[in-house]
Every structure is written in structure tokens, then in C-alpha cells.
Amino acid sequence: MPRILIGTFFQETNDFHPNDTVYEDFGILRGREMLDDPVGVIDGAVDTLSARDDVEIVPTYSAAMGAGGTITQACFERTTSELLDAIERHRTGVDGVYLNLHGAMTAETEKDPEGYVLQEVRRIVGPHIPVVASFDMHGTITRRMLSHMDGCSILHTYPHIDWYETGARAAGVLLRVLDGARPVIASVYTPTMVRGDELKTATGVHGTFIRYLERLEERDDVLAGGIMLGHPPTDCPEQGSRVVVITDGNRDLAEREALYIGRSFWNMRSHMQCVLHSVEEGIRIAAKAKGTVVFADAADATSSGAPGTSNTILKGVLESDYRGSVLFPIRDDPAVACAMEAGVGQTVTVPLGGTRDPRFIPLEVTATVEVLGRRDDVPIAVLKCRNITLFVAASGPLLCDRWVYPAFGQDPKRFDIVVKKLPHTPDEWYDNWAERTITIDSPGAASPNIPTLGHQFVPRPIYPLDPDMTFTPEVEVYE
Question: Quick check: 297 and 444 in contact, CB under 8 A?
Fold first, then answer.
């Protein structure tokens, strides 16, 4: 009976977040705890492995969180040592390893944490045990990662709705290798950092590449294919986009298809940048609209590792003569605490914004407390300031769930402007009914205005920091 070790090391790092990530920010699971209530990628992998009667699943260790700042070196060393120690303890008789990784992690000193983990896992289990990983598409697969794994799966959808399927595909690749497949990984790197609407799988140019790869994956001699888009807020030496095609022994096919997609991706790089509007332009558009206009504050997207404390759009609305109704979410622990102390129906004057990001100056706001409550154990206060409904949350889980609003008496469809601290969302959240969505060019740790972020470690030249650069994509092969 093949013994498959599974482990998780997962975080989306934003190196421009003003607050570091520490050990206590991770959710830690050990051994069988990983199988108590598996979700997403791990659930897909476990279900696929469990479907085989002849496979024994051995859960080892999981350190996982969403998005956050740079991982402190102390945190990196502790989490990786715990993961590797757990794998070491279970390595006897191991036949394969599956790792749930992200692809966009960085620590203070180690700028390729996932590459380090794969390298050390390979050292522990030896050169002949297959090691397969799954990745978020918003990250970079480095050459060190490619050198120490036998295969991988990458999320295909953005907004992400195929977590389960990605885990299932990774487990499927591992089972194929155990059954005798000979993986050949062909990869093409392009020095590109991309953001914007054209990355949406259903409607953007990136989706055309994914659908092409999905057709390739239907072939018996293709194990997997995917594209790592890179993650601009992760400031790392191999930042960029990478096409991966994995075949069963067919090197010519892997090289040809990876190079074709890589060249096509490079040629479309300018199309995969974000169209940005100033706050003033956004307000003018909303003033002329007949329906709801959604302002995407992608620069402060908590899903991309920003703190969620930007008040730039709020300041713009307050300083304008706009009188339409506005729904504005923000994280601000002191403001929530003040509202909780005052109570529903009371008037409070609070400094709002910038509590976890010094690039924003707090705005003094006088508002009426309309609703108080909690969601996922996070205190939330709904305040009314003139024509603006402020949805203020304390620190905690992502402030990005459109479906949290009705529980607090707010219907986004009844507002003229809805601000979302996300670059993109599933269509049913907003796009299916809003008149339009525009991305606001505001400052922040996850700004889609990539040249404003302030990279130090990314390779140069790289697009769009060096818009006039030339580059010829080349294929790399790992067998």
C-alpha cells in the first residue's frame, strides 16, 4: 500500500504591508488534525487519494494563513522546522509526498521559502520518491522549486473558484507518477508583473491561455499545465510569470507547448495591465450613472495582503459635492471600539483610517452608530456619516465578503457607489447587477499601479517597471 505524506505551507506575502507576519498569525494543524475538516485544496487532494483503496494518507503538518506581510525570519525558521521535522518522522516507507503551497511567500532573509521547503523535503525523502505540489496562480515557481519536484498543479480560475479541483489535479499527478508516468516539466519564464481585468478567466486574455492548457490536459500524455502569473506585491528575486507544461515522457510536446504559450503571454503583457481611474474621475462617472458603480480599491485589498485601512476614497467623497449613497468598508479597531462603547443611536467622532498603515492620515469623522454586531468573532460597526454608510470592522478575517452586508442591514444594490477592497470578485457578487466596476488609482500595499510599489529585489529589467525592455522567451526542461 503506497504511503503518501501530505503537508501544507501556505501564505500570500505582501512585502509592502507595514506589518510583518509572525508565527501566531498562522493556523497550525498537526497530524490527523489536518483531516478533521479539510477544505479547498487539501480536501480535493484527500478525496482523490482516498478514492484509491491501495493508498495510505499520512498527514504531517500544516501552517496556513491568507495574505499578510513579510514573514519574520524567526517565524519562517520555526514553521519550516516543524514541517520538516514532521516529514522526517514519517519518512520511513514513504512512496510519495504532496505539498499544498502558495508560490508567493517571502521571509526577511529567505526570499524563496517554498523552494527551500521543496529542497529540504527532497533531501529527506531522497531522489526517487515523487514530490508533487499545488500552487495558487498568484505567485512565482522558482527554478529551485522546479528542480526539486516531480510535478504540480496550479489554480486555473481567477477569481479563484477551483481550489478543490486544483488539489484533486495535484493528487492525480502524484498517482500517475506512482503508476509509472515519467514526468517531463517544460517551463517558460517571462519577466512580467501583471494586474487587471484581462486576468479574469471568464472574460480576459488570460482565460484564453487557460482554456488552451485545459484542452492539453485532456491528452493522455499530458499530466498538467498552468500559468503562474506572479504576484507584484511579493518583492522577490525571481518575480515574474511562468508557464508550466508537464507531460508523461513527451519532451518535444512539453517544450513546444510551453514555448508557444510563453511567447503568446509575453506578447500580451501590455494588455494585462490595469486600467486605473482617479477618485475624482470615479465620482464623475458615478454621478452620471443610472445604477450602482463599484469602486475597486485594489491597492488596499485585504485578499492581496494589504491592511484594509485606506481612507483615500472616503476622503475623496467627503471633499466632493457628490450626494449619492455610498457604502464604504474599512478596518479600524479603535473606531469599532468607540462605537461599541457609545451604543446604537449615539453620535461618535472618531479618527478613521490608517491605523495599521502610516501612509494614510486618519480622517476625523462624525457619524451615527446604526448597527453593532460580530461576524466570525470580529466586531463590526455600521456608522452613518452624511450620505456615506461606513462598514467598520476590527482586525480579523478578510474584509472582502459581499455577503456579510445583509446580516447588518445593508443591501449593496441600494447604494449608488459601493467600495470593495478587492481587485476582482465572482460575478454574482457585483458584476452581474452593477452598472460597472472601475479600479481606483489609490495608494496602498497592493496597488495595481505596479511601478508605485517600490520593489527592491525583483529582477531587472522587468515589465512594467521597464516598459521598453526586450526579451526572448526560452524553454527550460526539468526531468
Answer: yes
| Radius of gyration over every alpha carbon of the chain, rounded to an integer in angstroms | 23
Using the predicted structure, report yes or no on whether residue 397 has a pLDDT greater than 70. no
Q: What is the pLDDT of residues 256-274, one digit of tens each?
A: 999 999 999 999 999 999 9
Helix (H) or strand (E) holding 281: helix 279-288
- CA distances from residue 358 to 105, 307, 336 in whole angstroms, order as listed: 23, 11, 19
pLDDT at 105: 98
Half-sphere exposure of 448 (CA within 13 A, CB side): 25
**With contact defined as beta carbons under 8 Å apart, do 253 and 247 qualify?**
yes
Q: What is the grid cell recorded at 443? A: 495608494
| Nine cell digits for residue 427 | 460575478
Q: Is 143 exposed, middle or buried (0-12, 13-18, 19+ CB in 10 A)?
A: middle
Per-residue pLDDT reduced to its tens digit, 17-38: 999 999 999 999 999 999 998 8
At 131, give phi and psi (nearest 5°): -120, 120
Residue 102 CA to residue 388 CA, distance in Å, equals 37
Largest CA distance in the chain: 71
Residue 462 neighbours by CB under 8 Å, 6+ apart: 191, 192, 193, 239, 240, 469
Residue 398 pLDDT exceeds 80 = no
Distances 99 to 165, 390, 428 between C-alpha atoms, Å: 15, 41, 32
Residue 192 has a pLDDT of 98
The answer, yes or no, to whether residue 212 has pLDDT greater than 80, is yes
First CA to last CA distance, the chain:
26
Lowest mean pLDDT among 16-30, 350-364, 388-402: 388-402
Q: Please count the residues of the chain.
A: 479
Cell 490527523 belongs to residue: 32
Q: Please give the pLDDT value at position 118.
A: 98
Asked if 246 and 134 touch (Cβ cutoff 8 Å), the reply is no
Q: Listing from the earlier edge strand, what are the strands of the sheet with 56-68?
A: 27-30, 56-68, 3-13, 96-101, 131-135, 151-154
How many of the other CB atoms lie within 10 Å of CB of 160?
Answer: 17
Are 338 and 325 in contact by the 8 Å Cβ rule? The answer is: no
Separation between Cα atoms, residue 196 and residue 144, nearest integer Å: 29
